[in-house]
């Protein structure tokens, strides 16, 4: 049985919220009573996701946001506060994969793109969430790293660099803001059944089969399993948890 969370009267912001782990987490926040701001690059997809929640009786708002643009990340936070009056929780989930590439052949364009979304995008969102939470004196932020933030794998240097960076960003902000009543943590998902992973399974079948062999649990994770970890980290149950990089990976990083 999943734990029950009570986030009535609270407001959550989720980036990359139109599909996958972001959408599952937005749904979970809403079902726990929070008002949810869903931010995503795709206008049509994020509006559809927000409409799904409002049709189910929840308070939700869809916002178009390219996290590589700091002004758009700031605007998403401003929209949340304008619509719902505050910001209590955030899941900075927006991210992209990079094609597998020999480290000696990686292009600067490839490296810059994956880091612009996965690292700079988390930095921008977290920065403006912290500004609002600092003014309130409370809040909880969860940044999305990856098992790729904890280990190294061949042909993944650029992606893993971005995800290792998220953990450093998380830990530094965590020690800075814990005394101010704000907790910052990260989740490190393993191979999760999302649209991004489905594409990888098709285009990189051999590599993905090898990764799955290293998940002792023997299956893909579910987006809802990441959502449960995020909600716990935002909940009073994790009130003494600060600066962790929590693996949710079916045992991959136990090797």
Overview of this protein structure:
This protein is of the alpha/beta class. The chain has a single domain (11-240), classed as Rossmann fold. Helices cover 47% and strands 16% of the residues.
Shape: globular
Q: From the 3D coordinates, which CATH architecture would you assign?
A: 3-Layer(aba) Sandwich
Considering the protein shown, what is the CATH homologous superfamily? NAD(P)-binding Rossmann-like Domain
Kindly identify the CATH topology.
Answer: Rossmann fold
Secondary structure elements and pairings:
Elements: E1 11-15, H1 20-31, E2 35-40, H2 43-55, E3 60-64, H3 70-84, E4 89-92, H4 108-136, E5 139-144, H5 157-177, E6 182-189, E7 192-193, H6 195-203, H7 205-213, E8 221-222, H8 223-234, E9 245-248
Parallel strand pairs: 1-2, 1-4, 2-3, 4-5, 5-6, 6-9, 7-8
Features:
255 residues, alpha/beta, Rossmann fold, seven-stranded parallel sheet, two-stranded parallel ribbon, 8 helices, 47% helix, Oxidoreductase, oxidoreductase activity, NAD(P)-bd_dom_sf, oxidoreductase
Question: What is the compact description of this entry?
Answer:
The protein is an alpha/beta fold and 255 residues long.
């Amino acid at each position: 049985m999943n734990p029950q969370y009570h986030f009535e009267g609270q407001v959550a912001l989720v980036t990359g919220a139109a599909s996958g782990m972001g959408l599952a987490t937005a749904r979970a926040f809403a079902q726990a009573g929070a008002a949810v701001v869903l931010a995503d690059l795709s206008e049509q997809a994020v509006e559809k996701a927000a409409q799904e929640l409002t049709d189910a009786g929840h308070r939700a708002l869809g916002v178009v946001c390219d996290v590589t643009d700091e002004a758009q990340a700031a605007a998403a936070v401003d929209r949340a506060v304008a619509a719902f009056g505050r910001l209590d929780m955030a899941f900075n989930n927006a991210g992209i994969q990079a094609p597998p590439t020999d480290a000696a052949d990686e292009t600067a364009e490839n490296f810059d793109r994956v880091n612009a979304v996965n690292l700079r995008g988390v930095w921008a969102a977290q920065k403006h969430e912290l500004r609002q939470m600092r003014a309130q004196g409370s809040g909880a932020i969860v940044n999305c790293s990856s098992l790729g933030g904890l280990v190294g794998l061949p042909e993944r240097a650029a992606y893993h660099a971005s995800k290792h960076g998220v953990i450093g960003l998380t830990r530094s902000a965590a020690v800075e803001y814990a005394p101010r009543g704000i907790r910052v943590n990260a989740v490190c998902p393993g191979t999760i059944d999302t649209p991004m992973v489905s594409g990888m399974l098709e285009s990189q079948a051999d590599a993905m089969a090898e990764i799955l062999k290293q998940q002792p649990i023997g299956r893909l994770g579910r987006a809802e399993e990441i959502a449960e970890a995020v909600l716990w980290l935002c909940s009073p149950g994790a009130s003494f948890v600060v600066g962790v990089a929590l693996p949710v990976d079916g045992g991959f990083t136990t090797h």
